[in-house]
Amino acid sequence: MAEINVMETIPEKMIIPLKQHNGDICEPLVSKGEVVKVGQKIGECPSEKCAAIHSSVCGEVVSVEESSHPSGNRINSVVIQPIEETECEDFTPFKDSGKEQLISAIKEAGIVENYGTPTHLVLNPPDCDIDTVLINATASEWVGHNYETPLEYASQMLDSLRLLMKAAGASRGAIVLRNDDKDSIDAFDGLDYEGKTIMVAPLLGKRRVGYYFNDQNTDIIVASQDKIYGKNIFEYFTYNVTGRKVPFRCTPANAGVAICGVKSAKAIHDLVNTGMPYIETVVNVSGQVNNPQHLLVKIGTTFRDVIEACGGYSGEPAKLISNGVITGVAQYEEEVPVTKMTTSIIVQGKDEVLKDISKDCIHCARCVDVCPVDLIPNRIAALSNQGRFDECRQMHIENCIECGRCSSVCPSKIHVMQLIQYSKEAIARADEDFSEKESSNIKLGCSCGSE
Amino acid sequence: MTFTISPPPHIKQDTTFKKITWIKILALLPVSVVSIYFFGLYALALILAGIGMAIVTELVIEKAFNKDITIMDGQAVLIGLMLALMLPAEAPIWIPIVGSFFAVAIGKHAFGGIGSYIFNPVLVAWVFLILAYSSYMYPVSFPELGGISDIFLENGAGLLIGVSPVALIGGLYLILKRYIEWKIPAFYVLTTLVLAFLVGDEIGHVVTGAFVFGVFFLATDSPSSPVTKNGRIIYGILCGVLTVIYGHFANYIFAVFYSIFLANCVTAFIDTSTLPGSFAEESFLQRKYRKIMEKIPIERLGVKTDD
């Protein structure tokens, strides 16, 4: 089990962006000169598609201004100068156990999945019923810090799963681990929970979670599968785990599945037991730093302070990446804050920076061999390059999970993933102003529970 | 402090087209050395003439059409070397020169350069040479493989490539290191051996230097072979079938070259007809299987299934 260290030093400046999720920007509740406490709400949701923002430190608001954001944009942020003493809001453990209260508490606590969707929307999507809750632990981002033993971690995750199921009103839940993550599998295997022994069930071929729910005669199981990573893995993940196909332009919610991350599950557990909103997260710092580690930091800490807490750069840094080397975003500067969506910070040295020039495709089929969803990336890239988006649709471009493996193995160094993303974007925009009533034959949108 | 900005992915494999090509050339060096030992310095002259003319042609064409000079990626060298190795040892010195010019100028550049040509340039040039100058292209002897020693050193070889099938072992290294992929060679060899056994040809006649060379270096040439997973299997089987058909009625050495050339013709067709479906879609067989399984009352038989 990877050890989690806690960042003790108090930085000079905290930047808390008012948008740490996909959706609308929050409205600031504080203004310059005000003093805020730990856990105080500083961003109010203007709409449903939003999650509240809380202050993670105690201090004085220096300004509310546009500041850099790890996504590469500039977003309205609250800049706070922390002070030494910590004064907290009164956190009260969550008492009432109703579904509606739990959902509104999750929304108030600003819990967000690491892929950006606010958790209350994942668990309680408009016009859809969720019957299965999955905790995706395959990406293996680490969770919390105060576990005595792996067993404690395992039972806490199962408690979190129960809470998630209650919040979603789902009858079944599963934790999906990675095949090669031996620590976690050992932690769960043989654990006694609610009078039953948990067995880690491998997902193989046609044996998906449905089989194990029947086989083990339970409503909670722990399963394991191969590692999947990528930006849009949810449709593929849903299919892999439950066998349900998510229709084009729909979300897993339309198939009755809610997918949560490990971090948000832990945050909900904390919320119910201590009342603490989502104000701290674990980031994995690696690459050209002196002391790479998993670090528990407060949201809003700048990358510079995080790297200093890890012993500073070793050698001259050339590239700063948030969220992984395959799908992450390269940063312009160090003055970007850790947000709820940040899972890792990677520093690359000068010799690691790629300077390749694209050549012609030689049809070596390496991209075809590595593609986890059976696409022909080289052909889709060529069609995207020529703007033939209709043909891209026929090649099932919407299945692409944007894992970046095709770009990574290409010997001609073609930017396959960018070309596919470009084409997907163009396809999505083409239908934006498409009138629904134009023809009775065409039906846009998704219907819930269709299998 | 300034940081580099670039789109993801931020790490890539260090395999480049240049590296793949030069390693293929390295894998062909042992057989070149054995053929020079066998046929004397004249074989070296043939190889050098082939490589030299290929480089000169590439340079002239790229200069003339204002393209980037791509000599250093090694493809011209590879084409020249492969063509020279496919010639008989007593061919006149102008044969590789004409052949290399034809391979690079017509086979490669007239079709649009790397990645665009539909026929393997080496085979294009070989077919041209054997049609135009057939009297110079027929070797004085065809190998009569019999014993184990002929696998290592073939005394009756007429072509440079025929001298030693074992010296082409570099092809296996290429597969292990994934510089060429395994499906085409595996299905090619399997089909050929099984079919040759069925029609009653001696395996010793089939496994020649030309066959091993064709399996590892000609059939796996990436622009002229399919990209889809099933397509590569079909292509390998097709090459094998054509090789046995030609080989059974003529000789297996020319059959290898002709069959790969003909299989190149249908590469695009194989590709477009084997495009994979969406990941959650059922294939034809799966659909039939499900239809049958739906009619069996599994629940009543007391067997638990997936929902």
TrEMBL record, chain A:
<keyword id="KW-0813">Transport</keyword>
<dbReference type="GO" id="GO:0005886">
    <property type="term" value="C:plasma membrane"/>
</dbReference>
<dbReference type="InterPro" id="IPR049684">
    <property type="entry name" value="Ion_transpt_RnfC_Methano"/>
</dbReference>
<dbReference type="InterPro" id="IPR026902">
    <property type="entry name" value="RnfC_N"/>
</dbReference>
<dbReference type="InterPro" id="IPR037225">
    <property type="entry name" value="Nuo51_FMN-bd_sf"/>
</dbReference>
<keyword id="KW-1003">Cell membrane</keyword>
<dbReference type="GO" id="GO:0046872">
    <property type="term" value="F:metal ion binding"/>
</dbReference>
<keyword id="KW-0004">4Fe-4S</keyword>
<dbReference type="InterPro" id="IPR010208">
    <property type="entry name" value="Ion_transpt_RnfC/RsxC"/>
</dbReference>
<keyword id="KW-0408">Iron</keyword>
<feature type="binding site">
    <location>
        <position position="364"/>
    </location>
    <ligand>
        <name>[4Fe-4S] cluster 1</name>
    </ligand>
</feature>
<feature type="domain" description="4Fe-4S ferredoxin-type">
    <location>
        <begin position="391"/>
        <end position="420"/>
    </location>
</feature>
<dbReference type="InterPro" id="IPR017900">
    <property type="entry name" value="4Fe4S_Fe_S_CS"/>
</dbReference>
<feature type="binding site">
    <location>
        <position position="371"/>
    </location>
    <ligand>
        <name>[4Fe-4S] cluster 2</name>
    </ligand>
</feature>
<dbReference type="InterPro" id="IPR019554">
    <property type="entry name" value="Soluble_ligand-bd"/>
</dbReference>
<dbReference type="InterPro" id="IPR017896">
    <property type="entry name" value="4Fe4S_Fe-S-bd"/>
</dbReference>
<comment type="function">
    <text>Part of a membrane-bound complex that couples electron transfer with translocation of ions across the membrane.</text>
</comment>
<feature type="binding site">
    <location>
        <position position="367"/>
    </location>
    <ligand>
        <name>[4Fe-4S] cluster 1</name>
    </ligand>
</feature>
<comment type="similarity">
    <text>Belongs to the 4Fe4S bacterial-type ferredoxin family. RnfC subfamily.</text>
</comment>
<protein>
    <recommendedName>
        <fullName>Ion-translocating oxidoreductase complex subunit C</fullName>
        <ecNumber>7.-.-.-</ecNumber>
    </recommendedName>
</protein>
<dbReference type="GO" id="GO:0016491">
    <property type="term" value="F:oxidoreductase activity"/>
</dbReference>
<dbReference type="Pfam" id="PF12838">
    <property type="entry name" value="Fer4_7"/>
</dbReference>
Automatic annotation (TrEMBL), chain B:
<keyword id="KW-0285">Flavoprotein</keyword>
<dbReference type="GO" id="GO:0055085">
    <property type="term" value="P:transmembrane transport"/>
</dbReference>
<keyword id="KW-0830">Ubiquinone</keyword>
<feature type="transmembrane region" description="Helical">
    <location>
        <begin position="188"/>
        <end position="213"/>
    </location>
</feature>
<dbReference type="GO" id="GO:0005886">
    <property type="term" value="C:plasma membrane"/>
</dbReference>
<keyword id="KW-0597">Phosphoprotein</keyword>
<dbReference type="InterPro" id="IPR004338">
    <property type="entry name" value="NqrB/RnfD"/>
</dbReference>
<dbReference type="Pfam" id="PF03116">
    <property type="entry name" value="NQR2_RnfD_RnfE"/>
</dbReference>
<protein>
    <submittedName>
        <fullName>Electron transport complex protein RnfD</fullName>
    </submittedName>
</protein>
<keyword id="KW-1133">Transmembrane helix</keyword>
<keyword id="KW-0813">Transport</keyword>
<feature type="transmembrane region" description="Helical">
    <location>
        <begin position="118"/>
        <end position="136"/>
    </location>
</feature>
<feature type="transmembrane region" description="Helical">
    <location>
        <begin position="69"/>
        <end position="87"/>
    </location>
</feature>
<feature type="transmembrane region" description="Helical">
    <location>
        <begin position="233"/>
        <end position="254"/>
    </location>
</feature>
<dbReference type="InterPro" id="IPR049685">
    <property type="entry name" value="Ion_transpt_RnfD_Methano"/>
</dbReference>
<keyword id="KW-0288">FMN</keyword>
<feature type="transmembrane region" description="Helical">
    <location>
        <begin position="36"/>
        <end position="57"/>
    </location>
</feature>
<feature type="transmembrane region" description="Helical">
    <location>
        <begin position="156"/>
        <end position="176"/>
    </location>
</feature>
<keyword id="KW-0472">Membrane</keyword>
<keyword id="KW-0812">Transmembrane</keyword>
<keyword id="KW-1278">Translocase</keyword>
